[in-house]
Amino acid sequence: MGHNRPMQIVRVTGWNIHLPYVEGVYRMSGDRVTTGMDAVVVRVTADDGTVGIGESGTVGVTFDSQHLPGQIAGISYLAPAILGMDPRSPQSVHRRMQATMTGHPYCKSPIDIAVWDLAARAAGQPLWQRLGADGPEPTPLYRPVQGTTPDEVRVKANERLAQGYRRLQVKVGDDPVVDARRVLAVRDAVGPDIVIFADANCGFSLSAARRFVGLLGPGGADVVLEQPCATLTDCAHLRSSWDGPMVMDENITSLAALIEAHRLGVADGVTVKLTRVGGITPAIVIREAAVELGIGVTVEDASGCNLADMTFAHVNASTPALRRVHTVDFDSWVTITHVTGPPARQGGSLVPDATLPGLGLELDMQFFGEPFVDVQR
Ligand SMILES: [Mg+2]
């Protein structure tokens, strides 16, 4: 048996990269339209030359209380604080970040992911194994169906099926009448066997949400309602009008929020976004609690590219199959592929590589210019 030699983080480097959408624009309720996503990629280097990489992105400045200028400032502030730490203890590095800066989880996420990648590489294990998965199991993908009219979403839904997706997300949260027509058009177009999530991204008032679910008719078109209103309280009030499945996304900011959502009966499922909660370390705490509570879990993020996809593949593989819901493949959304290695997407699922250590990917340096931070010990 070899001895446990010391290992230290000796360099932290961060870049930002803009990822334009393949389909031009992305729309959410409240006229929130973006033409691309901003991703931050962090590389953490150990004294023996082992590196780990992590990605975390934002969707403009209107999706969540996180944005690129904040990430650049926060990561630049946090990076020197983790120099000298042992990357094989990611929770320890995360505690150091918590002690260095209160809040701002979106700044901690890409660093935390990079440290987990490094820890798994140092152990010679794929990340899914380092996280305790049964194996490199697949996670099914969902894909948003964008479009403003029933006819547009009908066409788009069929395109998504042809692309291999079996789980669709229809954005709602504006006019409940128009939204209900669009959701019913998608249900009509794809038949009863395709999973449909109706995601309001917090957009409905309570009264609009009541109207929307009423217009779906008996059985609610068999959709899953995602984050209909902005607060857990309003989502809980909606329960008197909607007894179908409801999942929370934007409100799941912490373990405490998960427990409150469960107590209020609005969390048949939850979406844990790595950037929102602060990386893999807090995400797996929330995930394990959800699994124990019998809640379905999606681990994903707001933005990113194929490095983010591979992270979702590994973390979701470590969610027990019974509670693993679905996830997202951002590399299909954007025009750039900024890492090399095996693709995470296989058909309608993301699958982590069985044997490569860590996340199994390398940065394709042609896409990365001057780093916004590069500190060394
Ligand atoms: Mg959502």
Written account of the structure:
With 377 residues, the protein is of the alpha/beta class. The chain has two domains: 9-124 and 364-376, Enolase-like, domain 1; 130-360, TIM Barrel, CATH 3.20.20. The chain contains twelve helices and 18 strands. The protein has helices at 68-82, 90-100, 105-123, 127-130, 150-162, 176-190, 206-215, 232-238, 255-263, 274-277, 280-293, 306-317, and strands at residues 9-20, 26-28, 32-34, 36-46, 51-58, 139-140, 143-145, 167-171, 195-199, 224-226, 246-248, 269-273, 296-300, 339-340, 345-346, 349-350, 362-363, 373-376. It has a seven-stranded parallel sheet. Strands 5-4-1-18 form a four-stranded antiparallel sheet. A three-stranded antiparallel sheet has the order 6-16-15. α8 links the parallel β10 (224-226) and β11. The structure holds magnesium ion. Magnesium ion is lined by residues 199, 201, 226-227, 249, 271.
Provide a short characterization of the protein structure.
This protein is an alpha/beta fold and 377 residues long. It has helices spanning 68-82, 90-100, 105-123, 127-130, 150-162, 176-190, 206-215, 232-238, 255-263, 274-277, 280-293, 306-317, and strands at 9-20, 26-28, 32-34, 36-46, 51-58, 139-140, 143-145, 167-171, 195-199, 224-226, 246-248, 269-273, 296-300, 339-340, 345-346, 349-350, 362-363, 373-376. It contains twelve helices and 18 strands.
